Amino acid sequence: MNAFTLKTLFRLLTELVVILAIYLLGCQLSTWLAWPIPGGVIGMALLLLAFALGLVKPAALQMGAGLLMAEMLLFFIPALMSLLDYGGLLRADGWRILLVIGVSTLMVMLVTAFTVELVVRLGKRHEA
């Protein structure tokens, strides 16, 4: 390995460690504060804040973020491979499956909305 390759590898590892540290900090904050927000989302907000305040330049993490984005497909391959196993089922009954997913999602949203509305009304009635 030449010096350029070692330098590039060291930079890549450093960027990945910084991204991981921000993610872990977000997870820790989520746990400490008992927020219902995932640590990854808090970590992204911290990273955005660091970019906005000028503490970190986006170019400083470009190589590490690029590697993670390029390899992100690996996390989705198992789900995609299962679709290949059931391709015939999807072709024959795919519209029914989508209809059930759509109707059930709509029903969950409606029941949630009505439940929240009922709880708010009961709470107001209880306060009065």
UniProtKB/TrEMBL annotation:
Pfam families with a match to the protein in the record: LrgA
Tree of life domain: Bacteria
Organism listed in the record: Pseudomonas fungipugnans
Predominant cellular place of this UniProt entry's protein: membrane
Keyword Repeat: no
Topology relative to the membrane: Multi-pass membrane protein
Keywords: Cell membrane, Membrane, Transmembrane, Transmembrane helix
Protein name: CidA/LrgA family protein
Parts of the chain that traverse the membrane: 12-31, 37-56, 68-89, 95-120
PANTHER family: HOLIN-LIKE PROTEIN CIDA, HOLIN-LIKE PROTEIN CIDA-RELATED
InterPro entries: LrgA/CidA
Subcellular location: Cell membrane
